[in-house]
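Hi R.,

Here are the chain sequences for the assembly we discussed:
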Amino acid sequence: MSAALFRRPWLRGGLLLSGPAAWFVLIYLGALFLLFLSALWSVDSFSGKIVHSWTFANFETLFNVPAYRTIALRTVGIAAAVTVTDILLAVPFAFFAARIAPKRLQAALFVAVLIPLWSSYLVRVFAWRLILAKDGILNWSLEQIGLGSVNIGYSNWAMWIVFSYIWLPFMILPVWAAIERVPESLIEASADMGARGWRSFRLILLPLILPGIVAGSIFTFSLTLGDFITPTLVGGAGSTFIGNVVYQEVGISNNVPFAAAFATVPLVIMGIYLLVARRMGAFEAL
Amino acid sequence: MRFAKIDWALAAVLGAMAIGVAACGSSSSSSSSSVPTKIGTAEGQLNLVAWEGYAQPEWVKPFEAATGCQVHAKYAGSSDEMVTLMRQGGGSTYDMVSASGDASLRLISGGNVAAMNVNLVPEWTNFIPQLQSPSHNTVNGVHYGISLQWGPNVLLYNSSKVKPAPSSWEAIYSPKYKGAVTVPANPIQIADAALYLSKTQPSLGITDPYELTEAQLNAAVNLLKQQRPLVKKYWTAAADEVELFKNGDAVIGAAWPLQTNNLQADKVPVSELIPAQGATGWADTWMLSSHAKHPNCAYKWVNWVSTPKVQAEQAISFGETPANTKACPFMEQIKKGSCVKYHANAPSAYFESIKFWKTPVKNCGNGKTDCTDYSVWQKKWTEVTA
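And here is the predicted structure of the full complex:
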């Protein structure tokens, strides 16, 4: 038996891969395929049953009704804003952690970044809801220091803050790894040639860690793009995301085909995003 | 990262799957069974789809102890969600639903609920006449459920922050409380706007807030679009609205009496009222799924919740009016003055004053068929809230 496998490496490889490959094809790609398929069906409004005949009506509705365009643009816009925010927060932090902090502080920072991931996502979002509420901790603190109060609970601002907080570790970790990988000698050489700190950062470090940043942005962008819990909990009037529409169409309106059609929108956006990210070398940094 | 070769292999597999999927048509036919003539042995389980607050331990625990039927309740936030839940899994996931008038007819016409034998529910004869065979659950003399409770959608406000006390629905449409208004995330909310317009703009000619021509619907939708910048959040669950009021994010909004009760229990200074323009409301029915797995427990359940004592408990807990006319003395036992407060003693005139939820259909009821149906309402609501 083992001799037979030894003589035929392709058979060995095939047997090893067959389990994961079957899982991947049947469960993962199969689900995606069914998604596309059901997007082309429709629902009989009277009985609520799915009509299995092909139609592009769902996609026409998506393109022709301005409300859905607004929702799609809002989703992409906030996902982009969150990504930019996380880059701005993560790069200085990761730079400090990887290059300046002494070893023991480094370990402490690493744990600090990971600790929030140990608690439930829901708990953290609910905590933010209480922080940002009108009579919440944020306004109480602002009033204590005499700054008055802000009214950002249940709004797109609240969503931006919460998303940026929740996905920040997913940006810090790849950027940290990327900065660690840049040889110290390159920065020193740059300094020897007379470049000051900012110039070295812009011309030497930034291009070298860009794949890490793009890799992190895949996480922050795609995770925000597909979320519907944070908009439900901390969003206000006019905070509907693509995910919320999908959830409502499945759970409340019983229109699975339309939900499937709308769910293909983030898929397409992520497809384009990943293609661009691959060009920028993000996959080598993962 | 080279996918090209794998791509072809995948395409072949997916192609094979496509043929497989196309071959499987869905075939689920509804089997209609005749009405039972007696209640059999309890099955030990009962799965309910209910409005928040309709399956409180106060009356569920004694029911479980008395009948051995374990109750599993799933709360739904809107009539649309109830209809969807009752259609899930071929309709056998849930045994009963506490459907309001805007869901009941959809469930009946979709074949999702079964006819029920009112003779197996003795208390039914004590119901107010309007709720024995109402048009929202009785079709051609066939009963598709047992009425439960009814009540108005009220205007809820924080009495320490909203001064003077409001008397009109205008309060949630005027910029005075901008950013501190909350209304339900529910397309049927259009009817609230229509009801308000029927009184404030008589020239529109709205007589029934659920029977709107396109022009009337557009007027209501425009009002809601003007309201949108004032709204802090469209609430989906009663608990959401309670939290908004607790944390000061909302000071006024459309609500159920349940929220008022819960907030007052938590010592939040709130009051409710039915404004001058009147109110929309609900008349709920326990309906039995046509594919129910536990019909005997279901019949035991409707009998239980129809008894005057449980009717009284639920009425006070939620803040609504019981269908059973014998509930009054029990309400007085639990809470003095509650019988009058919730109109359980003289309901007829009050009953007529509430515009009960019903599903908007093309038929306007006056021989014309130019009214907007519910699917149009849903689309318009998406436009308002997107």
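The radius of gyration of chain B is 23 Å. Residues 174 and 227 of chain B are 8 Å apart (CA to CA).

Let me know if anything looks off.

Best,
T.
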